[in-house]
């Protein structure tokens, strides 16, 4: 059976294999395994791509978010507002600091954080609000920042939005954002990697120090930090892929538009809900997430998988319904939009190299599964 993966990492590698091999040879010859010129070059190039003054490469996206939160002063006992509809790492980064996640619901259409709910949840102990730029489009970080009191900052979770903009603004521009280069992301490494981007030079330098054992120079440790550094081999991969990212994002947008057209009939019949893009957003379609109607979502996913189609679920449980955060005291019904989405959503195969024929097959299989 001809498989259609959710993400085709083999096809992505084939496009850059020779370039990466040459880059690996450079790193191995120079033995610049931690840091080095490849990392510095990538940081410059990604900052330019993101439209920010600074980029600090780190070990993974979860560390990036924790470091960004620490850089704006989040500490033990503080509160951080974030959406219930997100990957658990968003809340996990808050918890690792010793701060308390304060959850809010998502918008029922875009599934992004409900901006008003987030503002309503801000209290005296709130030190940060984390809008998650989910599935490849941006939440209203600028709107949140403009309305927050002085004691709270916006820290953007941009793990799924490399290249996305809202009203022309990129994540981290004027603020601070964390991103992930997990292999399946639009810009993916060959292992774990992440970065913090910001226009705030002081925050960038603090992130760099915290990620390097608190070191500001060799054997000079002015703050208590930990070890979260981007390595030279991953930087080689990221540089090669970054040069192709804008083209890849454009291909994703074209594929998403094709899905919209192919699925229009099912949507009109109420069999599923197509993804919505917020006004002013340039979407980069990290994921193409539909929501099924009355059908059993898990059964639909099972049927697609049985046909060799790599459909997935992002995410099957909102943060408040996971065991890890049961201590927050929430139950089913507290965040109804996030819960309904978790029960109904499924992600269809989407990657820059997907062909119209593959998408047609996905839609045919989905139509059969919904019968």
Describe this structure in words.
Strand 4, helix 6 and strand 5 (153-154) form a beta-alpha-beta unit. The chain has 371 residues and is an alpha/beta fold. The mean pLDDT is 97. It has 2 domains: 9-242, Type I PLP-dependent aspartate aminotransferase-like (Major domain) (Aspartate Aminotransferase, domain 2); 245-369, Aspartate Aminotransferase, domain 1, CATH 3.90.1150. The protein is built from 13 helices and 15 strands. The chain has helices at residues 9-30, 37-50, 61-71, 88-97, 115-120, 141-147, 201-210, 232-242, 245-262, 264-268, 297-306, 336-344, 356-369, and strands spanning 54-58, 79-83, 100-104, 126-129, 153-154, 156-157, 165-166, 176-180, 194-198, 215-217, 220-221, 272-273, 281-282, 288-292, 345-348. The chain starts with 8 loop residues before the first helix and ends with a helix. The longest helix has 22 residues, at 9-30. The strands form 5 sheets. The protein has a 4-stranded mixed β-sheet, with helices on both faces. It has a 4-stranded parallel β-sheet with strand order 3-2-4-5, sandwiched between helices. A 3-stranded antiparallel β-sheet has the order 12-14-15. It is globular, with a radius of gyration of 20 Å.
Q: What does the secondary structure layout of this molecule look like, with pairings?
A:
Layout: H1 9-30, H2 37-50, E1 54-58, H3 61-71, E2 79-83, H4 88-97, E3 100-104, H5 115-120, E4 126-129, H6 141-147, E5 153-154, E6 156-157, E7 165-166, E8 176-180, E9 194-198, H7 201-210, E10 215-217, E11 220-221, H8 232-242, H9 245-262, H10 264-268, E12 272-273, E13 281-282, E14 288-292, H11 297-306, H12 336-344, E15 345-348, H13 356-369
Parallel strand pairs: 2-3, 2-4, 4-5, 6-8
Antiparallel strand pairs: 1-9, 7-13, 8-9, 10-11, 12-14, 14-15
Helix pairs in contact: 1-8, 2-8, 3-4, 3-7, 9-13, 11-13
